[in-house]
Known about the structure:
Layout: H1 4-10, H2 13-30, H3 43-48, H4 54-60, H5 67-87, H6 92-112
Amino acid sequence: MADPKLWWDGLPLVTKSLFGGIFAVTLAANFGILPPMKLVLDFDLVWRRFEIWRLFTCVLFYGKLGFPFLTWLYFLYSYSLRLEQEHFSRRTADYIYAMLIVWVIMLVIGYVF
C-alpha cells in the first residue's frame, strides 16, 4: 500500500463513496468552507423550511477533526470494506439498500428521541 492512488482505486464503490464523502464534508466543515450548523440534523428546519439536505449531510458530518474522527474513519473503512467484499460480494445494490435501511432507521430514532 505504498501508493495512495492504487489504494483508492482498489476500494469498492460504496466504501469509497462513504469514506470520501465523510472525509470531504467533515474537512470542509472544519476548515470553514461549509457552516457546521447547516449540516446537522434539525427536524424543525427540515419540516418548516424544507432544508432536506440535512437528512443527508447528517450522515456525512462527524464533528471536529482529531483522533476520534480518524479512529471512526478506520472502523468505517475496515467494516464497510469487509462487508462489501465478503457478505455483499458482487451485490452492490443489496449493500446500498441495506445502508439505506439503516439510514432511515437512524433518522426515525433521531426523530423520536
